[in-house]
Amino acid sequence: MKKVMTYAPENRSVGRIFKKFAFETNIEGVNNAGRSNSLFRAAIWLGIFTILVALTITDIKDLVLEYTSYPVDVSTTLEHQNAVDFPSVTICNKNRVSCRNLEKFLEICKEGNNLCEHPTEIENLFILGKCNVSAKLETSSNTTSNNPTTSSILLETIRKPKTKPSIKTESVTNIKENLQSVQQSETFASEQQFLMMYLMLTEEEKFKIGHYFEDLVKSCTFRGVDCLSHMGSDDQNFFLDYHVIVTPTHGNCYTLYSEDESAGKSSLTGSTYGLSLVLNIEQSDYLRGGQTLAAGARVTIQDRYGYPLIDEYGIDVAPNALTSISLQVVNITRHSYSGCTSNNWTDSTYKDQIETDTDFFYSVTACQKLCIQENIQQICNCSHPLFESAQDMRPCNLSKGAEDAECVLEEIIMYDIGEKKCKCDPPCKEIDFEKLVSSTVWPGMMATMAFSELYGVNPEDVKEDYLKIDIYFMSLNVKSITETARYTVVSFISTLGGSLGVWVGFSVCMMFEVIELVIDLCINLVVKAKN
């Protein structure tokens, strides 16, 4: 008959307690060692158990480190929707300043009109742009120098946006010296000279010497309905409008958006039910001093409340071509574990660099530029001419050899090599658009005459000045990219239990056996202390 171990006081020695635990426990390895008839077998089982415990501890350590790093899993789903929000569209002429409008505004300056605050700079821009040099295209009938609408715009104010819903690295000094040793191109030097003069103007003056919406957009249809006749009017019942953004590189840019969210939804796909624009880029009014080498327009597509990043995400469209841009909506949802931030600028470290009343959503790209701009302002005491800023500071002179250029170059290199970093977290919710771009000749050879009669221009001017853009949804399937926490408290405990079970066959119930062992040892110590 098996001898049963008891807890009589005389049996309460540490050795007997461990022997009883090893004999009765359900922990594999320890149980086998306790039941072994020979010391050798018990030693083998204890050795195996020790190795498995070591593997378990290593696995648990890695699991805890991963859990405390707050990892996320990314899932991609495709869901069909009955209707999706149509994005806002920004269009710009590749030419920053219209020679025709510059000449007209120069005449206003010579008359001493109060609208002109920088007459000397206006005249210098006219000379640098060589607008007094006759162009071959200048005599074409497409020129609208006597357009009464254009003349009246010169006396109007700018349309402001409406409130709407281990690698080898070199030192900074070495990189700076290498870049400065390269000769600056004549094109860049000429552009910088023109840009510095351009940035001295007020926003109103920049607007008045740029290309106007009425001259740029010759036709606009949205979902098959003419949207040009009501655009820019005070008709609150119409669903499409535009506002002006004056940029250093493209001058006047126009963002088209739907004022009514419900009217701005699209439930049909294809070019017929999207936005269709016919643009006149007015090549005869382009700058002739080498500041504008490419002819055409630039278009960006963003969320209804997104800020248009024209230089970063713009698509160039050429004259004499139909450019089709088909879209698919991508919803991006990030988990707080990834360090995301809200969609408004109030939580941004660099909110002082953006207008306080802006309704545009936060973006990482814009934040990065504002971050570098703020640093340049603090270190170089000037503003980078190509970056946005709400601060009223003089623009940096980036011409070769200028003190500003050396300071700006050094600061940008610091960010390039990682010695300085921006605190720009991604937004928790973001809407993006996958784009498929294609183009073809437009209008065709047989359609050129009909087009020239429709718009009242010479057939020769169509190839040089006109282009068409179709923007539409390719499908109503919305792609969703979602981040979720890899571990919750429940899943972490479950994974932890799995690691214990795989290596040592340990369960939650066995924890109470260990607790019982600890209690027995404590009782043993108390009894010994009393005796």
Question: Would you write up a description of this structure?
Answer:
- Helices cover 37% and strands 19% of the residues.
- With 531 residues, the protein is an alpha+beta fold.
- Helix 4 runs antiparallel to helix 5 (119-128).
- It has helices at 14-24, 30-35, 39-68, 99-110, 119-128, 148-153, 172-181, 186-199, 203-208, 213-216, 310-313, 364-380, 403-416, 448-455, 459-465, 489-504, 508-530, and strands at 72-80, 84-85, 88-93, 217-222, 225-226, 240-247, 251-258, 265-266, 275-280, 297-302, 315-317, 321-333, 429-441, 466-473, 477-485.
- Strands 1, 4, 5, 9, 12, 13, 14 and 15 form an 8-stranded mixed sheet that branches.
- A hairpin with a 2-residue loop joins strand 4 and strand 5 (225-226).
- It is built from 17 helices and 15 strands.
- The radius of gyration is 36 Å and the shape is elongated.
